[in-house]
Amino acid sequence: MKRELSQQEIDAAFQGSQAAASEVKQAVEAFDFSRLDRIPKSQLRAVHLLHENFIRALSSSFSAYLRAYVNMSLVSLEQISYAEFVEGIATPTFIAYIGLHPYDGSAVMEISPALVFTFVEMVLGGHGTQAIRPQRKVTEIEKNLMKNLLRILLQDLSEAWKSVADIRFGVQSLADEPQVLHVLAPAEAVVAIAIDVQVGSTTGLINFAIPSIFIKRLRHMFERLRRVHRAESKRQDQIHMAELLQQAMLTLEARLDGCTISVRNLLDLAPGDVLMLDYPSDRETTATLNGQPKLKGFVGMEGAKLIFSVCAEDQEE
């Protein structure tokens, strides 16, 4: 039997389909395909911690190499586009393009000219106290002198990254302007790391940009690092620790606590007086180990020596 729909039923059906379509439309979110290389904040925190360790090691290495105190601190670590990173770089400057072996890709490191001229002066035997720094490009000779410092820097960086992956950072080329080599696309996301450096009276920044897509590829290694828990100590480690602790010195004290007396009676004591402690010699007492109750026993004499005879271990918390 055929049934024809009324106009009201047709209108109700169309209204229902439009409402369902609007609900689906609201649930859809726009996806930005240009940001596929963005990494999560949890991984950013791990990268932040990794570079804090790197800065502590680098500060010690530079101080030893330059024979002067070098203070470093991590100013910022954030995800930005490579174009934004380049915009924040003054020109002319000192730029090193870094290879990430054995992985494909390159990173960019910029060192402010004030730091470069100070480092070069100290490498050549100066004290780095020159008040006015030249406003010019870094010469080829100065770039060659900076290669030793870069080698130390990248070696410490490789050591810091070993907890995640075995990466060998190496200098590919040096430049004065960030636009000379197009190693990264302007819209590509990078993790920009700013390090404040103070050596003598000179203060400057070391800026480091690592492609976010490179760090994201190592996400599984960061996850593995987060899942690492402290392993239980082995029997051999326990024996070794016990052997080391055998040489430790502890304070054992056994006290016979007597009665209390007034200050007047204490001041009236004279040679020959007998003070009754009201504490029987065969009464059990507690010995303390470094101030903590540990053993129960009796105080006695063996020949001319005062002894403590242990009868049990104190069970009090």
What does this structure look like?
- With 317 residues, the chain is an alpha+beta fold.
- It has nine helices and ten strands.
- The protein folds into two domains: 193 residues, Chemotaxis protein chec; 63 residues, SpoA-like (Surface presentation of antigens (SPOA)).
- Strands 1-5-6-3-2-4 form a six-stranded antiparallel beta sheet. A four-stranded antiparallel beta sheet has the order 7-8-9-10, with no helix packed on it.
- Strand 2 and strand 3 form a beta hairpin.
- It is extended.
- The protein starts with 6 loop residues before the first helix and ends with a strand.
- The model has no long low-confidence stretch (mean pLDDT 81).
What brief labels describe this structure?
alpha+beta, extended, 37% helix, 2 domains, Chemotaxis protein chec, 10 strands
What is the structure about, briefly put?
The chain is an alpha+beta fold and 317 residues long.
| Number of self-contained structural domains | 2
- Tell me the CATH superfamily of the largest domain: CheC-like
Treating each run of at least 4 consecutive H or I residues as one helix, how many helices? 9
β-strand percent reads: 25-35%
Look at the helices and sheets and give the structural class: alpha+beta
Overall spatial form: extended
- Return the CATH class of the largest domain: Alpha Beta
Indicate the CATH topology of the largest domain. Chemotaxis protein chec
